[in-house]
Amino acid sequence: MSETSSQSSALNGPPPTRFVQFKLVLLGESAVGKSSIVQRFVKDSFTELRESTIGAAFLTQTIQVDLNTTVKFEIWDTAGQERYRSLASMYYRNAQAALVVFDITQESSLDKAKYWVKELHKQANSDIVIALVANKLDLEAERKISTEEAQTFANELNLLYFEVSAKTGENVKDTFREVALKLPIEDKLKQSSSRRKTVDLNRRQNTNEQQCAC
Amino acid sequence: MAASVDTTLRRPSMAERRPSMAERRPSMNTRRPSVIPHLAGIEDPVFPSTPEDCDVLICGTGLVESILSAALSWAGTNVLHVDSNPYYGDTTATMTIEQIKAWCHNVNLNTPGFHGFAKALMYIPRPAKLNSRDYSIDLTPRLLFAKSDLLSLMVKSRVYRYLEFQSISNFHTFENDTFGKMSSSKEEIFTDQSLSLATKRSLMKLMKFVFEYDSEGNKQLMAEFGPTPFLKFVNDKYKLSDAQVNELCFTLGLAPTPDISTLAALARIRRYLISFNVYGSFPALYSKFGGPGELSQGFCRSAAVAGATYKLDSPIKSYDPSTQKVTFRDGTKVNVAEKVVCSASQAPEGAKNVPERKHQVNRLITIVERSCKEWFNEGESASVVVFPPKSLDSMNNYPVQVIIMGAGSGCCPAGQCIWYLSTIEKDQRGRKDLESALKKMEDSILRESEDGGFDVDLTEDDVIVRPDGSLSVINSVKLGKSFKEFAPKEKLTYLFKLMFTQFTSIDPLDSHTGAPSTTSFDDNGKNSIPGPDQGILYSQMPSTEISYDGVLAEVRALYTKIVGSDDDFFDVDFEDDDENSSPSGPPAGGVGAAAGLQDESAIIDEDGEEFKDEMDFEL
Lengths: 214, 619
Fold this sequence. Notes:
The complex is a heterodimer of chains A (214) and B (619).
Chain A: E1 18-27, H1 34-43, E2 59-66, E3 69-76, H2 89-92, E4 97-103, H3 109-123, E5 129-135, H4 147-156, E6 160-163, H5 172-182, H6 185-193
Chain B: H1 21-24, E1 53-59, H2 63-74, E2 79-82, E3 94-95, H3 97-109, E4 117-123, E5 137-138, E6 144-145, H4 149-157, E7 165-168, E8 171-175, E9 178-181, H5 186-191, H6 197-212, H7 219-225, H8 230-237, H9 242-252, H10 262-275, E10 284-287, H11 292-305, E11 309-311, E12 316-320, E13 325-328, E14 333-342, E15 359-368, E16 382-387, E17 400-406, E18 417-423, H12 427-448, E19 463-465, E20 471-473, H13 476-481, E21 494-504, H14 518-521, E22 537-538, H15 551-563, E23 575-576, H16 591-594, E24 602-603
Parallel strand pairs in B: 1-2, 1-14, 2-11, 8-16, 14-22
Antiparallel strand pairs in B: 3-5, 4-21, 6-10, 7-10, 8-9, 12-13, 13-14, 15-18, 15-21, 16-17, 17-18, 19-20, 23-24
Helix pairs in contact in B: 2-11, 2-15, 8-10
Region (Disordered) (chain B): 1-32, 509-532, 572-599
Organism (chain B): Ambrosiozyma monospora (Yeast)
Pfam family, one (chain B): GDI
């Protein structure tokens, strides 16, 4: 891990005071670059050879959407379970945003993205924000799927549409920022104050009096 | 690329190629091919067929199999994990209404993949008002004691991060037609005005013994009385009422039978007492949106992260131990280098080696149109009710245990509640006991329900003052008695009712320890009868226990059977990725704390030091 990019809070003024956390899931066929996009967003790196799609749980990254609001994404990768269409219902539960990724150099990959959009409509909350993401902009010369074609598909299904390159980082951060701006931040802020108590298993009372975030 | 390294080589046996601790650090591991992601733009994303090779094939994604899969995967074993159903969870699944309807149908047809269950009876009144996906119904609901081996493992493995947990404080005992809640902490016993001084002394003496029974000083006593019935032991040695003994044994201890030995009962009561105040003033927790079915999914995800391959909807047809090939029902084949593990429920058709499952648990699951908040502690959404032996009109020989899940548990919509009743009493007798208990619950909720429009004036005797000054109602007994004559005008609306029988190899007397029965693990002997499942190692089907205790012991036994020892069971180093080490870092100015947000990311630290976890304790 390197201390490359220091801080997204280059904005002036007092630090943000409002925090909201959202679960974001990644979907799409194997090999379209789902993990690379997250890697680029979270660590601002791109590695051709990595060992694991993600660690033991999921990755998180914060993004400041305005002067006093920070959105924290809890990003769930498929961990390979999409390969045989064997994602668990847990994966979709309470996901408030989804990136459905396809590869502009693979002709069939847009069609396959349609399957995942359908799955989202079936399994996820009805108000989920879905973004269709075209990856591998760096391979423009090998492009098989035109922007128009993908954009039309996205419009039909009312999806956000972005084109990115995980390899160069082009448009990756902006994609997450745009998704964050579409999220029901105000509702979530209201909701979290009235949420029912959950217990953090990593915080025992007799060793740590700190209570969970209720 | 590395993914094809071992497709042709006959792999050495597990013991020979066991990697060192260092090798098994995720960052050092080169022998975990399927973890390597598909390289961008190199591979064709064609829909893949079943992988051709694996070290261990696991059939069934129930909780035991799922933890096993994760444990093996993190130890560097190449696991292919399949399920004959299109959903996760198998015998411990959490289901929607539509899924459970299909499940019932299959159980009654005795479809392969649904073995181990029988006589499913379902009732949904018409017109059905249920929106299938609003419900998470557990086939085997369970409670998580705050101090338990599985909880420690979930923290260590980080699987708890996939789940949400809520507390459960109220353990009610049904006595004399009412629900009572026992004084189970020292403070409560001291301040409980309904107890005489002599009783208080006796209770305190017994509580003390519960903590000390395995000390050196009690060795002789326990050698003599340990194997004898607890109820006799406690009646001979302590001056307690039957009601108090019942509460201790059946409610706090969740003993499944009055035949329970002194040793087992003491262990069970201690489990409750030591779990108290670990996370707060409650002994147990449960996972939101469903129990074992959710945990299974969490462990499967963990296994997938470690490289296991998942394929649902893939029933197996046969295993040939001479060629080590498994054939699936769709005709595809896979080479299994080490072992085939199969849930008894998913045994191939014509199986000859499924372990005997002579123990039964009868279950009754209902959804009622009531919030049932009267039974929950403030701010909570679940509780436990136990009907001790002989407390029902059916003169039940065994206790009926009930887990109640309200809407706040995420398992049903607001204004509704799920009741899970179970007993180890067999066949018709068991079903009668369940119906009898259900009737009592119905009467009770109609009496106690605020929805009925009755207010109860509490007297000082019904309230205790806790040491910290807060008030707590202890006497829900009173609440019941005062309305004993009240004939409900309203009827309770049942939205769903399901009764079924489940079989298991695990003796109820051992269910809290999960001691594997000898027959189910004897693959050298009984598992070698020629047939489509010769050589398959079977798991035992969920126990009758309503806590998670015993689950991990079975997983470890299976793990040992496969690997040779469980020394390196989940011996993985995870480290939290604290915000300081994350390149993009936290927002400036320590505001994370101000917002009450904790860092939730956990990734494998490449130079991970040995894991030090304060939760790492054993009972």
